[in-house]
Fold these 4 entries.
Entry 1:
Amino acid sequence: MSSNDKNSELHDCIYGGPLPVEQLVSRLAEAGIEFPVLTTVIRESDCEPNWESWDFRPGDGWVYRTLPYRPAMGETHRRAGSPREWQRSLQDRLIELRLAHVPGNAHLHDPQQEARARQLALFQFNHSLPNWRDALTCWEEAVLLRTQTKIHDTHRAYLGFLLEAATPLPTIGLAGHRFHNTMQQMLSTFTLDGLGECLRHGLEIVQEQLVQQNRRLDTTIRKALEYVHRKLTEPISINDLAESVGMTPAAFSRKFKLAMNQTFTVYLQSMRIERAIPLLLGTNRTVLEVALDSGFGSVEQFHRVFKSRFGVTPLNYRLGKSRENKTLPSARSLRTP
């Protein structure tokens, strides 16, 4: 494989994209490299040619270098004995280098590179990897360089990250009130430090729930939850869901309730309510639009479910929040990042 290869699939894989890392083993073999390997990431301006290595140059200012394992290479290279370990050793080195050059890294102004940093931070977070907080810092710096003092743009970016980070969860569960309170605090906060604190607090709540979920959910339930997440805004029946995991509706219903401590209907309503809340608080969409965008079949159903959970209608919930926002400072009073 050419040292100038710009294979976007590999780039996505390194940053935690959709391509399974195991598919890349054959590509390493084509380059004459078998596991275990040594890996590192080098700034392109500091990279010297090495004909024994496989250098991937995706055009983002870094060189991803992989070469056969040799004990004498030193600490600048990481030993990896498997494809997954190889991916994560590259990610760890990449995060270290980005932190060392933030915020002066000009590449972070590139929207594509901001998206890559976001992808990496989400991957690290959802897999509960040790460096997820550092990866988050890299992405935050990229966002702040782009948004400058436009606090509402920062709001949207942070809230979007928090919601996507929570997507693997079936529901926020017993921590739901804490999670929703954090989202509300974020929408009511107009300082950069406050936004960062709310984001991290929300992520800690999600991380706690992810750990609990991974301890108790088997493959069948996880597959079903992934199906729901993909189809959340579409009509979903228990029959469709059971078919997607190869079970009868009755058997699946029993298994789901045992695993989730709630019926599928209650769970689905909870997921849709969680999707609706930030739309109510953070957008100007009508209640009808929010209901349909959240997967409810009608505004009447949305009203009924919402009021049973919160004791108020969606509109009154929004209006109460708006009154609170009137006392908050203007974005023009914020400090420059």
Entry 2:
Amino acid sequence: MLWRALLSRLGISLVTLWVVSVLIFIGTNLLPGDVAQIILGQMATPESTAALRAKLGLDKPPYLQYVVWLQNVAMGDLGISKAGLGAGLGTPIVEILEPRIFNTLRLTGLVTVIVIPISLFLGLIAAMHPGTRLDRAVTFSTLSLISVPDFLVATMLVLIFAVFLGWFPAIVYLRGDETGWVLIKTLAMPILTLVIVASSQIIRMTRATVLNVMSSPYIEMAILKGVPRKRIILRHALFNAVGPIVNVIALNLAWLVGGVVVVEQIFSYPGLAKLMVEGVLMRDLPLVQACAMIFCVTYIVLIFIADMATILSNPRLRHPK
């Protein structure tokens, strides 16, 4: 049964990835503007524009462009940049992506290391003391933060910590050799913004899931027998709540990788999301498509891992009737 579920989820993931690739290709080709016109400028003649379009392969039918692009992506060839962002026209996209992917993964990794333990701790503390002032404070705080958009959180943090207090820089400037406290201080603002936004969802889901498990008959029986609530939550309820908690963690990690566009733009962080925005502005379609596929693959892989964790943690899913 486990292998059947694994193969089923894998097949769904591959089909989803193919559908997403079609949507990405269609969406990027619907963007207004012409990359050839952008490269040559407004004074370019129609003949020179047509020649450049032919050189870039933009004169081929859309379906043929999609087939060639999909074959190349499947082989690991992301193509070349048609606008040459920061590296010159014709630069392989892989060379452009490498430093940006490293920056995004570094930021995401630091946020993840902070978010997961803090969120699980606060969610469990709130579940251990339902209805108390502590629980109400955690619930009110998380609801408030979930309701606030990330750009507003980032703006308020800039006003407080960069403008008024002057503790951290408002703009992230990376030379590449930062380590230790210098690196932490440089990345403090985007990290703090992402921690605030991402932790709220995980805290609420952890609390809600644990409390839902606590209403199960076997938990109520343990309570009637006098088992301490802390022991019940940590040794019995938490394991059965792993599936939904892992799902929401996976969703937030996927958001951290692909949904930090606003944060990277506000702080000028040289990550993958900011590169994608630059590609859209320059109408560099291969670059935009490559970034979008990386985001989608990351999202699908994380959801696949979350599904597997849910199945492994729930015997009823491993052995359905």
Entry 3:
Amino acid sequence: MFELSFIWAGVIAFAVLAYVVLDGFDLGIGILFPFFPERADRDQMTNSVAPVWDGNETWLVLGGGGLMAVFPLAYATVLPALYVPIILMLLGLIFRGVAFEFRFRTQRWRPVWDWGFAIGSITAAMMQGIALGALVQGIKIADRQYAGGWWDWLTPFSLLTGAAVVIGYALLGATWLNLKTAGPLQTKARHIALIAGVGTFALIGAVSLWTPFLAPIYFTRWFQLPTLIFSAIVPVLLAGCGFGLWHGLTHDKHLQPFLSALGVFILSFAGIGISFYPYIVPGALTIKDAAAPDSSLGFLLTGALVLVPIILAYTGYAYWVFRGKIDPAEGYH
């Protein structure tokens, strides 16, 4: 018999991963805006994500709502620890969404909304990385409630993970533009992707070297059998993705660099999972301890078995319909 709490942990992990890889590249488009000052380039960039960017954020709702419903104890302890970065992230996403729509509706204020789109995207990405770093470095819990301070989330390590997510999303955005555009815009995006790729791997290396020394549980998990096997496989696969990214960008491949960049995020996410399991709050709450009663988990799982395939179906259909290169002559309305 399968443990419902672990099934739900898998569902939420999948939702979070889907959000990161799907919304990551359109956040990356906003992050790259300052590097493309020409209006025509910016219009093409936003047109490349216009049909899908709203749907990408569905996974954030599923992941956050699922955490509250299925792991209420984790939600109640993690949220107070991360109030500031989560609120700033949501404000960034809201402001970015408003700017995305308004920049097409005005001429006079377009530069303002262009910068709003960029700042909102950078803020959202940075806060996501900071929240992740704060969770990895540990959250103080006593008597089943948050026992830390208001600014515990702000540390050199969390700032490092925040920068890693921003640069990583820029890589996703640049490889997406390499896939969806042509001409000078594609060429410039390819050059930026090479630089962002180097930065992403450097920051992944820095985070990986720092993490084992944050807590004994990470050091044990990374350097002792049997988990050492998985910890060794991930860097090898990451190196393969790095080669695929470099080869694709230097040999005029269009899809390969984007898939390689997605692979980097998927493998990094897998590395986090190896470090966390079986905890949902590292060193403090296990998946089973934080879960709601089985009766609630079973009831909610019934809904998820219907909802998740529907989301996957319409997401896949949207990407299929809008596949291929965008036409610069066609605009967003």
Entry 4:
Amino acid sequence: MNRAMWLLAPAMLIAQPASARDADTKAEEAQEIAEDAARDLKDSRFYNKPGASRADYDADWQTCRLIARGSKTPAGSVPIYDPAMYNPAISPLAAGIGSGIGAAIGAAIVEGQMRRANRRNCLLIKGWRLVELPAAESAKVAAMSDTDRQSYFATMVGAQTVDGDITEMTSFTPVTDAKLNMTGTPTGPASLFLGKKVDPRTPLTLADNEGALVLAFRRNDAGSAGRSGRVQIRRFDRENGDLFYQPRDWKKKGDHTTYNSEFVSKDKKAAYELHVAKLTPGWYVLQTDAVGTVLPNTTNCFGAPAFEVKAGEYGYLTDASPFLDAALATGGRHTGMGYARNFDEAKAAMMGFQPEAAARMVEVRIENGATYSCAGQVMTRMDFPGVTDVVPGPIAKTEPSVGEPQDVLPTSAASDGLPSAE
């Protein structure tokens, strides 16, 4: 460019129509996303969805990247950052980071590994298949030029048939099997847990703005007998498609709202173990569960069962069966929580301890598909068996106009820490 052209360049840039500048910006962003998404198109593996295009893959990859970072919810909204609220999705591993540079580096590496795993889970949940190529085919791809390799992947991401080991997610309901017994008459007497050192026959009462949730741990076969487990629920913002988060100064404000609760089995020898938790009325999601002594490390943020707790009611949710290394009819083994609804049996068992509460028991309606901000755990989805109702999408919010203040995520949510952490 000669000097005259160089002097004219700024004027030429200013004179460029806004629409043209926007188009250039979008093209640059698309190119950057495509380059980033290519890091999961390797010589040895790639993602495939029959009929999809490379642009489809790039778009889903970028969406999953933002979700894994905590910058987007699975519903597509931006998590609200409020310094007064404790939102674990904003800084997924904040609670576990130690002091010092070494600890920060280690946490960044672990967080990067978790984000990669969650990006993978997100793509699988969206219907993509992870294809791992045979050694011979992988060597052929490795020997291709960059141009040929890109052409190869542009074809293979949407190919109808592919060769190699395929990993995919086709079902999100807990495992069912002929040997996993989650129904039928309990094999032993029922027990009831109302709290530490609380007599199960002490009459239950509910305050004016209080409801209760009833859950039972059922152990009806060898795979669940003597096994312990836990189920965690979180308060759900059904209108905005996210969780409600407890204010940091909740004690100062006198906020006694239930934001989360946990059912932990206490009598693993009982064939039928009832639990009652008093909760603030409102919507909740079944966020996660675990069997045995391990703590939960997953969150159903890509789709969770949601249900409403109403004031004055004892709402029965489910029977949960903790299977640990249980033998399957197929010949394999299974570890995980099984779910089935046996309302009449739960009510009959409650009648033996709390007849007035049993008379007010109702079966809560469950809706599948509740999505919310994904915290720093293994992100997954769980559909409650037999449920066809689906949580309606969050109410659409208008985008802020130019010049209006917008929510700004802190650095921990907007970046991946170390350059290699992605």
